[in-house]
Prior knowledge:
The protein has 242 residues and is of the alpha/beta class. Helix content is 33%, strand content 24%. α5 (146-157) runs parallel beside α6 (176-193).
Amino acid sequence: MEEKTPVIEFRGADIFNGENCVIYGLDMAVYPGDFVYIVGKVGTGKTSIIRTIIAENPLVKGEGRVCGHDLRAMKPKDIPYLRRRLGVVFQDFQLLMDRSVEENLAFVLKATGWKEGAEFYGRIDDVLAAVGMTHKAHKMPHQLSGGEQQRIAIARSILNRPEVIIADEPTGNLDPETADGIMQLLRRINSENGTAVVMVTHNMNICQKYKGRLLVCKDETCTERTDDEVIDLSFGELDISI
Length: 242
């Protein structure tokens, strides 16, 4: 059986937040089709891992490769090429509020080298259909609910058919029912397209309902655990209410 190549891999990597090392010796491998949660208290390095993956934070010690790019050898001119192979979804949506849904998506396609034409607009139609938002193409972001804005953000993240979706607290600003719909959407993209998903969350209910691999940030480390082990840990700020 052919061995899969990780789409994200760290070996002995120190993860920094500014000048402070928040995680020492990170070993992590994410493969095509994986659904991986990164959990832990506030300030334990979850988002710093995400920022390192997308080359927002430099990797200065250890090894790191993302979608074939060596993070230690990354030059500023290489970063856009890496990010074209990633889809990023944020807690606060980060849509351009002065443009329609379609214009938000068109902006990303133009920024990543697409030329306007049938394929360009066809791709916008495809991703809107994938997230169930075709009928909202001409709406402005402020005319959408939080859940609808997050669906548009997910549509934006899959425009360039990424190998990995990076989701930083994508359900954090949503009510439980809306969050459930977003999780179902991410899981469907994961299963149908084989797109790996790496998701930061503090909500253990989500991790229990939508099973995936669990990486736990605690005491300046990040290690893989089972969900039973995580429930037994004292996180304090994690939401483990039923």
